[in-house]
Structures
1.
Amino acid sequence: MKIKMLPNWCKKLGLAVFIIGIITSGIKGWNSVEDCSPYQSNSVIKSESSQVKKQDLELITPNNENLDLDGVIVIIGMFIYMFSKEKIEDDYINILRLESFQLTSLIGLVSIIIIYLISGNISFDIDSLTNLFLIFYLIIFAIKKRIY
C-alpha cells in the first residue's frame, strides 16, 4: 500500500513550526507564572457557606473562549514532521512506521489503564495525550530507524 506523504523538505518546516509553538507557549507560560501566587490551586474554592462564588470560578478556571493556539501549533508542527518523507523512502521505512505506531499505541493504552487503576480521578487534556503520543511515536521511530 502506497501512502501519500509530504516531501522531505517539510521535515524542516515541521521542526520550525514545532519550535515556534514551543517558544510562544513557553513565553505565554512564563508570563502566566508571574501572575499566579504560589498558594493558588486549581481546585474549586468554596466559600464559608459551602457555595461556590462566581468570582472564585472566574479566577480558577481557564477562559474557555480562548483556544490554546500554542498547543495547536506544536501539534501541527509534529504532524508535519511525522508525515514527511525520509531522504531514502522505501517499503522498510513504511514497516518501521507501522511498528512504531503499534508500539506507541500499546504503550499509551497500557499506561493510561495503569494510571486509571492507580488513581481513577485523574483527568487528562486531549492536547496532553496527543503531544505525548506524537512524541513517543517520533522517539520510537527514530530509535527503530537507527537500530535497523
2.
Amino acid sequence: MIGTDQRVSMTMATKAELEAELAALRKELSQLKGLTEEAAEDAGDEAHSTIRDFVGSLRETDLEGLAKQLTDEIESAMHEKPLLTALGILVVGYALGRLR
C-alpha cells in the first residue's frame, strides 16, 4: 500500500522542476516584453514619419486656399440659406459650450 506522502510526491513536480519552469517563463516573458517594446517603437516611428510627411506636403498656400474656400462657402450659405446657417451656428455654439 502506498502512503499518502508517496502519492503526493508522484503527482507533484519537484522544487527544481518548478524553479526551472519559472526561469523559462521569466526568460520568455522578458523576450516578449522586448518584442512588444520594439513593435511599439517601430509603430511610433512610422506614425511620426507619416505625420511629418503629411505636414510637409501641406503648403502655406494650400492652407490659405482652404481657408478662403471655407469662408467663401460660409458667406454664400449665409445669403442663400440664412435659417440653416443660423441653426448651424447655434449647433456649433452649443457643442463648444458643452466642451467646457
